[in-house]
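Anyone else keep sequences and structure tokens together like this?

Example one:
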Amino acid sequence: MQTSLDRAERIEAVEAANADGDRLVSVAVAHDEALGALLERVEEAHAEAEYLDGQASEPLREAYEAAARALRDVGETPENGVVVYAGVLDGELETDVFTDPPGRIDESVFEHGNAFVTEPLEGGAGADAATVGLVVVERGGAALGRLDESGVTALETFDSDVPGKTRAGGQSADRFRRRREERKREFFASVGEAADRVFDEPDAVALGGTDVTVAAFREGEHLPRRLASRIAGTYAVEHAAEHGLKELASKVRDDVTAVHADAREALEAFFDRLPDGEVAYGRGTVDDALTYGAVERLLVAETVTASERETYAERVEEEGGDELVVIPRSIAGGDRFVEGFDGVGALLRFPVEP
């Protein structure tokens, strides 16, 4: 069984591979396609290559044969698809099989060339679509919803039993105030519990409501940590109903889109510079790079705890680097960054010796 770091090193080797002719074979089988269909195409290509004359075709025939053999060994398409690379490099036949690709493979590939096709290892199609958990909370009630590429979906709405500011006759002001605060805490806690229940793993969370109420909700830390660490901001919204969710979505959409664009740009730069050793990854190596002041830009996955992210942000600021960039798992390459690179990486100003 390969470890996450082993897989990262394997991906790095695949990306760096280069041949002096079109003899490197790449095969990706989509998650919803029968493996046998791609195997048949590879076997047909191998049979055709057998009729080619000249020594130059021998490495390509070997690559086709190795790819077909690897597909037969896999047998059936794994849950997220499979990727096979085969080719003669430095005189040796090399084969690498990814039955656990970083993301779901939605499109099959069969190509040969002087480099491997690595797009299937960059995450599944549609992975860069942001999903935002919407929470509107005000004294009279709350609404929870989801914003994604299909629009706004209302998930749950409920009323509160927090009494108004006017107390019933005969109640002392102090006793009424205490009861009101207790009911408000209970209501806020129920909103947090509902959010924990209905939200899976949103890329961001937006809080809406009347200014005082939404500020009190956030400061009271009623959301579970996994959601609290993803809060994109708080926004003024008056009504805890479906139209309030749509109002909140319209306000947060541009903010989340900008954040995702920044994350995608940073992650693309990380993978582009990876083969040349112009990046650092893993907590230990990145810590050394920060100590030497070598970090140009720091990338931290959303899976890293909020307290760790805060510490990293302070360190990169102290060392004169650019602002920390949080990488969502859902963007292209996000899963690969989390699983293969420990969720912590850096673009470097200069190389740091390990």
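And example two:
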Amino acid sequence: MRFTFCLLLILFWSFNSHGQKQSLQRFLESEVKDFKGDVGIYVYNLKTNEEVAINADTIFPTASIVKVPILVGVMDKIEKGELEYHQKLVYRDSIKYGGSGLMQFFQDSVETELSVLMSLMITYSDNTTSLWCQALAGGGERINEIMEGLGLEHTRVNSRTPGREEIWKVYGWGQTTPREMAQLLVKIRRGEVISRKASERIYRLMSNIFYDEYSLSAIPPYVQTASKQGMVNASRSELVMVNAPKGDYVFYIATKNNEDQRWEEDNAAYELQRKVSRILWEWFEN
């Protein structure tokens, strides 16, 4: 199996640069064609400008990946001096929200700070801190204004956002396209979101992820990545920037209407994420 995989890669590497792009496109298309659900992929190599797009402009649910736009919204408030990174806050269990995360287990009235909320939101995908951060950022409306200002037409917060109730029923907490969310991370990497300082803080937070058993597991542990994962029953997606030795590359793998809705390690979407990530690492580095 390993020999066959390597042989295929060797054959693809023999193409010229234009042929490589087209071959990687076909290679990934062949990997996703049997997936029981809808798949969207966008890949971009920041050094070579190589690009792969499979349903890259189709709207998918973000699930917890919406926490990246929320983080941008909080950083916008910090940049304007309306919030402080180490600002003291008091947790009230009235804002507790279940699912992933740790703050739901905090005791009522415990003191915390904004930097902890932001870190838990990204590192552990904490739902309670995410909803708190969404409110602190000015709500979904303000975050969506920022996304629009960045040229992102479809990347939006739906939950608890006036006027988006019907869209929320379709896509849940947030929505995006593979191309747009990858573009947002590219802008962050280049220091173009809010300010260079704000972008660097966002990137540092996204480089410290607990959920490393999916796409990240196919990348050597000594290579830095910035990422965010989003998972609900019928939709499992992942955003990853790899600071690879031969040049940074970003990819977004989105799925929806998934037949396999199990929460087991061998879920079909998880396997697809690992496979695509491994292919991209081998392709760009070897």
